[in-house]
Amino acid sequence: MRELLSVKAIDGFYGDLQVLWGVSLAVEEKTVTALIGSNGSGKSTLLKSIVGLVRVRTGTISFCGERIDHLRPYEIASMGISMVPEGRRLFPQMTVFENLELGAYVRSARGHVNQNLKLVFDLFPSLRKLQHQRAELLSGGQQQMLAIGRALMAMPRLLVLDEPSLGLMPILSQAIFQVINDTRAQGVTVLLIEQNVGETLAISDYYYTLSAGRITHAGLCKDFIKHEELRKAYLGL
Questions:
Q1: Going by DSSP bridges, is the β-strand pair 189-193/32-36 parallel, antiparallel, or unpaired?
Q2: pLDDT confidence bin for 74, thresholds 50/70/90
């Protein structure tokens, strides 16, 4: 498979505080790759570095063979990377339709709004019925669906998800995992942070574990359970 995203030996900082230490990973096209680690391990910082919200001081980040670590977030988005941040970050006073429409702001997606709306409404039928409802009036699960739908409106090649099932009931979490599977089936590559490690491994192809800002393990998800240290730490087995 073709490598879509390449992160090589990056150091990430918040001011003078170093959070990432020589982190390297690769994401192959049309796969789901999981980032696994405890709170405070640097997972969200790594995702923010990829989309340009945190600047890296050393190392490189490349997408489709081009370096992007010097680009601004909107430039990275225009290349085909969409992020669904933790907490959804919707525009609460705007309707479902208006939030989705904003997702198609990148030039490559502007001429495909109706086509992409159909795709989103096919994935999330409840949003079709609620498209004139303000986002703040949606349930937590509906808001998460809207956040993912908004990201898909940009027609991304890489969808970056930060804790998509956080705070959701189990039945809604299952729906989110199914959507991630469906999204991958449509050819979108996914990079995922998720607290539910068991479900994440079930839908992912590759994993990386992050601890104290460093990559500690990596491999195929089907081999994760073979590592006793990882089973105990993340699956309680």
A1: parallel
A2: very high
